[in-house]
Fold this sequence. Notes:
alpha+beta; Outer membrane efflux proteins (OEP); 2 domains; six-stranded antiparallel beta sheet; 12 helices; 54% helix; elongated
Amino acid sequence: MVNRQICRADLTPAVAxxxxxxxxxxxxxxxxxxxxxxxxxxxxLLRERSALxxxxxxxxxxxNRQPDESAEADIYDPAPATANPSPDQxxxxxxxxxxxxxxxxxxxxxFADHAAGQSPDPDGEPARPPIKITIxxxxxxxxxxGREFLSNQExxxxxxxxxxxxxxxxxxxxxxxxSATLSGQGDAGRFEHATQIINTLRATQRLPYGGSVEAQWVxxxxxxxxxxxxxxxxxxxxxxxSADIPLLRGAGRVAREDLIQSERDLIYQARTFERxxxxxxxxxxxxxxxxxxxxxxxxxxxxxxxxxxxxxxxTKAKVEAGRLRPFQQDxxxxxxxxxxxxxxxxxxxxxxxxxxxxxxLGMDVETPLDLADIDIEIPxxxxxxxxxxxxxxxxxxxxxxxxxxxxxxxxxxxxxxxxLLPDLxxxxxxxxxxxxxxxTGGLAISxxxxxxxxxxxxxxxxxxxxxxxxxxxxxIGLEQARRDYDEFRDNLIVSAxxxxxxxxxxxxxLSLAEEQVRINMQRLEDLATRDDTDPQSVVDAESELNQxxxxxxxxxxxxxxxxxxxxLTTGQLRVTEDGDFQPLPQLENAGS
Length: 592
């Protein structure tokens, strides 16, 4: 016979309260640092998935993201302040009416010099020393402080957190519930008071192919306050184990659908994040190339103005000598003014372009930037359109996402078919209480008094109309996803083929533009050596030379962009951990 007093331990109310308090404390996760363990798990998961897709970005710095609590009191203000003054409270200072064109030109030039950190602005704001930045430093800055990068990185982190949440649901989960009640019952003015404390400690676990099991330990303690001396204290406990397992609907791998999808979603997000880093590098490079082109265009305009001013001085001398008519001087003067107006517009556009570039890098817009010359020149690859398409189909991470997400749709159809099955579940439970005749059973358990139950339930699918509608919707969704994938793949093929042709086109246009610069320079030199040169001919030559120089700079930018776009389109672009461009070994050898 089994000993009915096995594991016997009497609990007084004080001991029971201490036990319950200890259990409650132990069940509070992260009492010291609630996010430290979460951050470690998230970082580890991100490193694992980044390595799984071949990404060299390991440190996501999850723990660096802390809430801003500097103005926490204001978030509870039911009526936040609004700044909307009336018109008579707005100070609007009209500009002076009498101002010369030279003063306006000087003011605009001062704005440009202040943006470059060379002098105070017209309003007296002192200039800050400019920061010299290279294109590689721009890449690194965009990955450190750029808002676009940080948002993409946070999407990756959130996908990892969602997976950790789903994994937690599939691990053992512990719960502790404590309830205390005070009750009273009156009888002819006499009241009987009783206190009761119930503590339930339970652990649940999902089963890998459907269903769940749960273990519970329930401790009850009741004390009749007016009868304490006569044995009003009663204590008991019970160990229980229960299970609910499906055999048809919801059984098998379909039970893990949420976990499977979360695992796959993190892979998708890892690919998306890695591709976003490559797209960001190309986009920042394009902005940098465009700024260099704009700065070069300003220099070209300055050179044209210098040439036109020399022409103006020469024309003025010839008019005074009677060799040319006065309108020729006016014509030259008009061209100088037009060129200066164009220069002012170019400078303003450059300042705006540079400020937007700083915003993209997450920099202070008040900090002047001095862009260094481009030290990255990627040689063109000798490749056929067919080879470029093959590489794009093999390497593009977003295409791999589309292909795998199509499998998700196929799996969703299978899961929807599972919903049409009958419900056939097995349920069972076993409980081992304390001895029923012992009012202070404490922690003692009595195996002889165990109780159990075992059941089988069948729910026939008499009403599965919504499930059948859901199945049809999933089938249609699969067809849509298949068409979307085919369209995406076809567009990718077109883009890969176009990227090869664009490299050849950009190289051809650059060659022609350089030849145009040479021809126009020779034309201008020839006109300068002739005594009978018409000023209009010089003006036309200066204008065409400036246009040729701008076309050359544009063609050089187009060529640089074409090479980067080719690498991005074919999935061959690589980015280092710091955000720099990582040349392929073949490109390093070609450039050496």
